[in-house]
Design a protein that fits this description.
Layout: H1 3-14, H2 18-37, E1 42-44, E2 48-55, E3 58-62, E4 67-71, E5 74-81, H3 83-93
Helix pairs in contact: 1-2
Length: 95
């Protein structure tokens, strides 16, 4: 599902105009991104957690030159689904 399809579906289910739903979806994504960039966690009960996750420094390899290189420690955005959400997906897809 694309963002446009999500907006259309939310508009259909809520009866709210598409341009208003689009503004809400855009704002939600901006808030999530801004909070994760500020090393904050967003917890949506019964859905999941958006958070920054630190990756440790490691030795990588430059494939073209076959030489080792240091990949420094860095943060990545991470989503951890709650058990209730994971169980719902497992049940729905195991049929």
């Amino acid at each position: 599902m694309t963002k446009a399809q999500l907006i259309k579906e939310l508009s259909r289910k809520t009866g709210v105009e598409k341009n208003q739903v689009e503004a809400i979806v855009e704002s939600f994504m901006k808030v999530v991104a801004d909070q994760v960039c500020d090393k904050q966690t967003i917890s949506l009960r019964s859905f999941g957690i958006f958070m920054p996750k630190k990756r440790a420094a490691k030795i990588g390899r430059n494939i073209s030159k076959n030489t080792p290189l240091l990949v420094p420690a860095h943060y990545i955005p991470f989503f951890k689904p709650y058990e209730k959400f994971s169980d719902k997906v497992k049940k729905a897809l195991s049929k």
